[in-house]
Design goal:
The chain has one domain: Alpha-Beta Barrel (TIM Barrel), CATH 3.20.20. It is 33% helix and 14% strand. The protein contains twelve helices and twelve strands. The protein has helices at 33-36, 62-74, 95-105, 147-162, 181-188, 191-207, 236-243, 254-257, 263-271, 274-281, 312-327, 359-368, and strands at residues 7-12, 79-87, 90-92, 111-116, 169-170, 173-178, 214-218, 247-249, 261-262, 287-289, 307-308, 335-339. Helix 2 (62-74) packs across helix 3 and helix 5 (181-188) crosses helix 6 (191-207).
Length: 371
């Protein structure tokens, strides 16, 4: 019987509600369900379409999110990591957090924290545009910010989120994860200005009555899909060391394992980097991804955009590796991150579907749940 308490945190991709800024991508006014409904089989044995067992729900509805919270907690998941976006000096995709998740958390022990998804946006989310991975894509919105943009943006985050009782903390400090620190460095003008910005962010939290800030890196050392391209090859580790992150985790195995191949080979390639990330950052929280299939989003994507043989049993095997990692490191917070709660258009979701039912959720409960 499992008696130790683990913090199991699942990422949320907050696109399954109406967002006016991307209506030209998803014109049926219910977000990226538009794309999910159009999933087609691209090769023999391809696991398509992906059909949500609970239906195409509006995830900005607090009643829907309360259902999700209860489902998560029944299977051992007690933290959500919200992908959080800021483009053209304004928030994007924030309704699910503000109107759905936060009201639904009231009265529960479930927590949340933000991962600032500060990557650039190109045409990838638009299934009407034929995207070629081998060619540069038009940038629609830049994820970079200047210091003049960062400071009021971060002040807003402190006041709106960090002070909430259900915001997740480590050693009493709110956790703030940054997806693409090379892109942050690019916008702020270098490693030294970014380190100075981190120092200001920590001081600002103290000035606002918090005990500090836990800045978490999304670990990266080599090129992979969405692995950041704003620093010279090989310089990511030196930059991360200079910035002094408090900890690191990962977002998706595809950032180390690529976007094709057999699931266990793919997963083991990513898992093999955990000791490297621990050596670099001091604390590494293990990450487990469910799968990778980005073919929804582009008519030309075929088998080169898919990891095959992803199953609940294979996922559970990776969860056991994450548990063993945590159990060997009793001094660090027992946190594991999972991609993801609802990444339907990337083939990586815990929510039940019409093929696997609740088996991915049960895999989490098998390893980490109190039973």
């Amino acid at each position: 019987m499992t008696t130790k308490r683990y913090d199991i945190a699942a990422y949320i991709w907050p696109s399954y509600h109406y967002e006016p800024r991307v209506e030209h991508f998803w014109p049926e006014k219910d977000g990226e369900w538009y794309t999910v409904r159009r999933g087609t089989q691209r090769f023999p044995g391809h696991d398509m379409p992906r059909i949500p067992l609970l239906g195409c729900q509006d995830e900005a509805d607090p009643n829907v999110m309360r259902q999700h919270i209860e489902l998560a907690m029944a299977h051992g998941i007690n933290v959500f990591i919200m992908d959080w976006y800021w483009y053209e000096n304004a928030p994007c995709f924030e309704r699910q957090l503000n109107e759905g998740l936060i009201p639904a958390l009231e009265g529960t022990d479930c927590k949340f924290f933000l991962m600032w998804a500060n990557h650039d946006v190109d045409t990838l989310w638009n299934m009407h545009v034929d995207t070629d991975w081998a060619k540069p894509r038009e940038t629609l919105w830049s994820g970079q910010v200047s210091r003049a943009v960062l400071e009021p943006m971060f002040d807003r985050i402190i006041g709106k989120y960090f002070t909430l009782d259900n915001y997740y903390r480590i050693n009493s400090k709110p956790v703030f994860s940054i997806f693409d620190y090379p892109n942050l460095i690019g916008g702020l003008g270098g490693v030294e200005p970014t380190a100075a910005a981190f120092a200001w962010m920590r001081r600002r939290c103290v000035e606002r009555g918090l005990p500090g800030l836990d800045i978490q890196a999304i670990a990266r050392m080599r090129a992979g899909v969405e692995a950041g391209a704003k620093l010279a090859p090989g310089s990511e580790a030196a930059a991360a060391r200079a910035l002094g992150f408090d900890s690191a985790t990962a977002y998706q195995y595809c950032m180390d394992g690529g976007q094709t191949g057999d699931y266990m080979v793919w997963a083991n390639q990513a898992i093999s980097r955990w000791p490297d990330y621990e050596a670099l950052h001091g604390t590494y929280y293990p990450h487990v991804s469910i799968g990778w299939d980005n073919t929804h989003r582009n008519p030309s994507f075929k088998q080169e955009s898919v990891v095959v043989n992803a199953t609940p049993d294979a996922f559970e095997a990776c969860l056991w590796k994450a548990k063993f990692w945590l159990d060997a490191r009793t001094r660090q917070t027992p946190l594991v991150t999972i991609n993801s709660w609802n990444e339907w258009t990337e083939g990586s979701y815990l929510l039940p579907d019409m093929r696997w039912g609740y088996r991915y959720l049960r895999a989490v409960r098998n390893v980490f749940g109190h039973r």
